[in-house]
């Protein structure tokens, strides 16, 4: 009887906790949607920050995120392939896997400070390349973990069948194993992209911000997230409204990328 009562109490508390968490989430989304949608105008997408729009910020944010993806995807995938297909139970593989886990949980601001010391302080100016590298460092451990886990789900029999047909190890990995795990790996890349596209802390120390449209990565580079942080602190109402609009647009971008990744997984299943 006591166990049944305890079970009901825990069930009620767990349900109540979940409802409170979901309630706060919907409160935040409702407030963001109301203030964001009412602050969006056509000029928001057609003008740069200096003119009261976010065109240059969207282009700058996606430019750094795409460069980071180009850097992180091959490095992360190769490391994941080594861990699963070549490293096995070696000490080096264990060290890499542990370091990857540590990096995944590292605060993004720490990564920003590290890249600042590496790529900003020596050249004496904030720059877009540093921002892209900081975002790539955040992506790499996620891609390593995803690739490692997805390759682990590929049946060993597929590898053995490839060996029986006379295929070399690297060809079996490229043409059989990766193809079998491509949906899971792609989803991991999408989710890691969704994470970095909304990051602010590392860009505060690396790319900073630029009010004008520019594609010169050697200087301060436009950043949507940094601009939201700055605009929210300005005293005038127009700047705060633009911050709400940019926040809503960024939230929708991250939400759509996450939903697309989950849609891909569900269809594969």
Helix content: over 70%
pLDDT under 50 segments (min length 5)? none
User: What's the pLDDT, averaged over the residues?
Assistant: 88
The CATH homologous superfamily of the largest domain is called MetI-like
Beta-strand percent range: under 5%
Shape: globular
CATH class of the largest domain: Mainly Alpha
CATH topology tier name of the largest domain = MetI-like fold
Tell me the series of helices and strands, N- to C-terminal: HHHHHHHHHHH
Q: State the distance separating the first and last CA atoms.
A: 42 Å
Count of individual helical segments: 11
Strand pairing plus helix content: what structural class?
mainly alpha
Radius of gyration: 22 Å
User: What is the strand tally?
Assistant: 0
CATH architecture of the largest domain: Orthogonal Bundle
Q: Quickly count the domains.
A: 2
Biggest sheet descriptor: none
Explain the layout of strands and helices.
Blueprint: H1 2-39, H2 42-46, H3 55-87, H4 91-105, H5 108-120, H6 128-152, H7 156-164, H8 169-197, H9 201-204, H10 224-231, H11 237-268
Features:
MetI-like fold, 2 domains, 269 residues, 11 helices, mainly alpha, globular, 78% helix
Q: Could you walk me through the main structural features you see in this protein, from its secondary elements to its overall organization?
A:
This protein has 269 residues and is mainly alpha-helical. The chain folds into 2 domains: 39 residues; 227 residues, MetI-like (MetI-like fold, Orthogonal Bundle), CATH 1.10.3720.10. The chain is built from 11 helices and no strands. Helix 3 packs antiparallel against helix 4, helix 3 runs parallel beside helix 6 and helix 8 runs antiparallel to helix 11. The longest helix has 38 residues. The radius of gyration is 22 Å and the shape is globular. The chain starts with a helix and ends with a helix. The mean pLDDT is 88.
